[in-house]
Specification:
By secondary structure, the chain is α+β, with helices and mostly antiparallel strands. It contains eleven helices and seven strands. It has a seven-stranded antiparallel sheet. α1 crosses α3 and α2 runs antiparallel to α5. The longest helix is centred in the N-terminal third of the chain and has 38 residues.
């Protein structure tokens, strides 16, 4: 038991140190990038805030690399201090010493998914809002709720709020739509009710629309008008709509099931969010695989030599498995793989591969 606690403490220290190193590294790079992108559009305080909001996502993406580097650092140091030799001499298999680091990696993975994921979702959403505000002065906003789809677009005549009860898969065709245009000085100035609105380059095309002009002291119904078809200028594009509601990492893993149901109720495809949900649930297993991969190449005694080559091989294999996992995610999002298979197969395959390497290294 004491041996497990010792290895767990050493691995936790290595993991904490590696996280701190990546915080400084990623934070500095992102701060420089935000200063370059924003230029004179924002002050240093706003640039620093943007950098802080994007930092959790960067760390979250780099977690597998952090874990495998921490595992490599741990086992290289144990090999150089001959502590693994002592473990063997005491009658314990070196694989036995992996129990504590594996449990720590699994626990860290669970904490990252349960606590870190909501933090990343909140900061990523806030980063998008701030970035859009600095770059386009808050021209458009998109939201999905149980009541339907909400959009907001900017224009020369003011801001327009759009509500639709349902839409097609990419939100370029809306049904049972309300357009309400308002200005900061006068408030609401126009309402349009239409059965169907289709987004085309630079404008919405409305079918069977009824228009009310809203003004103080005037009955809107008296000035209302009917239009079989009409166009409304729009700053929205299909890409901006898809990016606004199609990024699963901006939704907390705790809220993803209900958000998926909302997407389905609104008529949108929820495949990307389903894939992401299962990918997040499988993340602790993938971190365990990274620990085993790091151990498979670095548990050798340092007197055998070629330590640097084995470290490089461990890192390259870790990168390879990470990109296989991302490839499976892309294929699942495109409908070429089942979401559950794409999410859970790579972590299990990585664990079995690492165990095979460990048994080969230890027992030949």
């Amino acid at each position: 038991m004491m041996l497990h606690l010792y290895f767990a403490r050493r691995f936790t220290f290595k993991l904490t140190a590696m996280f701190g190193l990546f915080v400084c590294f990623i934070g500095l790079i992102d701060l420089i990038e935000q200063m370059r992108r924003l230029g004179g559009k924002a002050g240093f305080a706003e640039v620093l805030l943007l950098s802080m909001m994007s930092l959790p996502k960067g760390l979250y993406v780099m977690t597998p690399l952090i874990v495998i580097l921490a595992a490599i650092s741990l086992f290289v140091s144990l090999a150089r201090s001959s502590e693994l030799v002592v473990t063997r001499a005491s009658g314990r298999s070196p694989i036995y010493s992996l129990i504590a680091p594996v449990l720590v990696a699994g626990l860290v993975g669970c904490v990252i998914v349960a606590v870190g994921n909501p933090i990343v979702a909140a900061t990523s959403k806030r980063y998008q809002e701030l970035s859009e505000e600095f770059h386009s002065n808050g021209a458009s906003t998109i939201s999905i709720s149980n009541e339907g789809l909400w959009l907001r677009q900017g224009g020369d005549s003011g801001q327009t709020v759009i509500w639709a009860s349902r839409a097609n898969g990419d939100a370029t065709v809306l049904y049972d739509v309300n357009f309400i245009t308002y200005t900061a000085e006068q408030g609401p100035i126009r309402r349009i009710l239409t059965q169907r609105a289709e987004l085309q380059p630079g404008k919405w095309i409305l079918s069977n629309a009824k228009v009310w002009q809203l003004a103080l002291g005037q009955n809107p119904e008296e000035t209302s008008s009917h239009h079989k078809t009409m166009g409304i200028p729009s700053s929205l594009t299909q890409e901006s709509i898809r990016d606004s509601f199609g990024k699963p990492h901006t939704v907390s893993v705790w809220q993803l099931p209900s958000f998926i149901n909302q997407l389905r109720a609104a008529g949108f495809s929820s495949r990307r969010h389903i894939v992401w949900f299962h990918m997040e649930l499988a993340r602790p297993l993938f971190l365990i695989a990274m620990v085993l991969i790091g151990a498979a190449f670095t548990m050798r005694h340092s007197r055998f030599g070629h330590t640097g080559l084995y470290v490089l091989a461990a890192v390259l294999l870790g990168f390879g498995l990470y990109y296989v996992r991302n490839l499976a995610q892309i294929l699942a999002e495109n409908g070429q793989l089942d979401p559950i298979l794409a999410a859970w197969a790579p972590p299990f395959a990585s664990i079995f591969l690492a165990l095979g390497l460990l048994l080969h290294m230890e027992d030949g």
